[in-house]
């Protein structure tokens, strides 16, 4: 996730996930940390359909600025890496 980084502001936030858009589980809690720019976030694998990012603090104003967000499926990562390595060796 990329947080606005064109000045010195800091952010705090949480990320929750859900499969039904009703029951939410917090998987990332950065509400007590100083966060800037690119954030690489990892959490235990769980089924995810919906992702909720809640900005809890911005040192400059009241708006949370998530500039870019990616959530790749890492469950097949090892298989993909092995396939890529096999391909590059041939």
TrEMBL record:
<protein>
    <recommendedName>
        <fullName>F5/8 type C domain-containing protein</fullName>
    </recommendedName>
</protein>
<dbReference type="GO" id="GO:0008344">
    <property type="term" value="P:adult locomotory behavior"/>
</dbReference>
<dbReference type="InterPro" id="IPR000421">
    <property type="entry name" value="FA58C"/>
</dbReference>
<dbReference type="Pfam" id="PF00754">
    <property type="entry name" value="F5_F8_type_C"/>
</dbReference>
<feature type="domain" description="F5/8 type C">
    <location>
        <begin position="7"/>
        <end position="66"/>
    </location>
</feature>
<dbReference type="GO" id="GO:0005737">
    <property type="term" value="C:cytoplasm"/>
</dbReference>
<dbReference type="InterPro" id="IPR052407">
    <property type="entry name" value="BTB_POZ_domain_cont_9"/>
</dbReference>
<dbReference type="GO" id="GO:0048512">
    <property type="term" value="P:circadian behavior"/>
</dbReference>
<dbReference type="GO" id="GO:0050804">
    <property type="term" value="P:modulation of chemical synaptic transmission"/>
</dbReference>
<dbReference type="InterPro" id="IPR008979">
    <property type="entry name" value="Galactose-bd-like_sf"/>
</dbReference>
């Amino acid at each position: 996730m990329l947080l606005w980084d064109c000045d010195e502001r800091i952010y705090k936030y949480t990320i929750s996930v859900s499969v039904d858009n009703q029951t939410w589980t917090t998987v990332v809690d950065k509400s007590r940390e100083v966060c800037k720019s690119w954030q690489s976030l990892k959490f235990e694998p769980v089924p995810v359909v919906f992702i909720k990012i809640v900005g809890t603090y911005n040192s400059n104003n009241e708006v949370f600025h998530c500039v870019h967000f990616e959530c790749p499926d890492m469950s097949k990562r090892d298989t993909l890496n092995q396939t890529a390595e096999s391909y590059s060796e041939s």
